[in-house]
Amino acid sequence: MSNNLLAGKVGIISGALDEKSIAWKVALKAHAEGARFVLTNAPLAMRMGEINKLSEQCEAPIIPADATSMEDLEKLFTGAQEHLGGKLDFVLHSIGMSTNIRKGKHYGELNYEWFLKTLDVSALSFHKMMAVAEKQDALNEWGSVVALSYIAAQRVFPDYTDMSQAKAVLESIARNYGYRLGKQKRVRVNTISQSPTKTTAGTGVGGFDAFYDYADKMSPLGNAPAEACADYCISLFSDLTRYVTMQNLMHDGGFSSTGISEDIVETITKLNS
Ligand SMILES: NC(=O)c1ccc[n+]([C@@H]2O[C@H](COP(=O)([O-])OP(=O)(O)OC[C@H]3O[C@@H](n4cnc5c(N)ncnc54)[C@H](O)[C@@H]3O)[C@@H](O)[C@H]2O)c1
């Protein structure tokens, strides 16, 4: 059901790799709500070609950009404004990657070059996007910038290794750039801390199925699906949330406020008996 929440709004959506991607669902919903936008992803991801389907469905052009490259990001923001005919109302940062996780390195044996790459791709890229937007004065007043985070920024999830630090930096960047863009342009900046979700990035984390099930059992509402995360993004891009900024917003079915659930008690009791 569409409510035209984003009618007349224009923006950039990064990170749609395939149909499972959270950004993919955000793009479909943003289109349904009347937004026009440009899609972007790393040139390497483009080769899979999946994003072309989404581009057709949403009538959204694709501008490839490695989110760690200032040069690419400059071209992305210039190109998006040219195509969309003016400044932007919303930007979605939906980007994460850790070679340490991909290669199964445990926390004590992290490769530091990869660690720096994790921070660059998954966190500094968020700063870079906003720095480019600021330099180009690319955002409209009352615009909205959103990035996706995970609760490993606050709590320990051993297999999430260096991504935990990346998410902590990402959330800090949202607060600090949120202050700056709020003062300059009344633009809001937030992170959404999403439940474990079965996507390429998500399922790449060791023990994913176990912590997916654990989070599901711990959350009174169950894990928040990707579609619901997309709905939350749309609400943050809309004019209904104009004074929400510099926040890390939990979108986790209640996981982060639950100490222990009846489901977990039951499971452990059964295991012990
Ligand atoms: N899946 C989960 O369990 C979960 C939970 C909480 C938060 N998140 C976050 O949601 C965001 C989206 O991930 P997803 O779960 O939809 O997985 P996904 O694998 O579909 O998306 C990750 C995207 O990052 C892109 N990317 C990687 N390196 C890049 C670079 N250098 N430049 C530009 N793009 C690059 C990939 O191409 C891909 O499209 C990530 O920030 C992720 O950490 C995911």
UniProtKB/TrEMBL annotation:
Protein residues bound to NAD(+): G15, S21, I22, I95, K167
InterPro entries in alphabetical order: Enoyl-ACP_Rdtase_NADH, NAD(P)-bd_dom_sf, SDR_fam
GO BP terms, alphabetized: fatty acid biosynthetic process
Active site: Y150, Y160
Enzyme class: oxidoreductase
First and last residue of the signal peptide: none
A Pfam entry, by short name: adh_short_C2
Pathway field: Lipid metabolism; fatty acid biosynthesis
Catalytic activity: a 2,3-saturated acyl-[ACP] + NAD(+) = a (2E)-enoyl-[ACP] + NADH + H(+)
UniProt-listed Enzyme Commission number(s): 1.3.1.9
Domain of life the protein comes from: Bacteria
A GO term, aspect molecular function: enoyl-[acyl-carrier-protein] reductase (NADH) activity
The entry's keywords: Fatty acid biosynthesis, Fatty acid metabolism, Lipid biosynthesis, Lipid metabolism, NAD, Oxidoreductase
PANTHER family for this protein: ENOYL-[ACYL-CARRIER-PROTEIN] REDUCTASE, ENOYL-[ACYL-CARRIER-PROTEIN] REDUCTASE [NADH], CHLOROPLASTIC
Protein family (similarity comment): Belongs to the short-chain dehydrogenases/reductases (SDR) family. FabI subfamily.
Name of the protein in question: Enoyl-[acyl-carrier-protein] reductase [NADH]
Organism: Hymenobacter metallicola
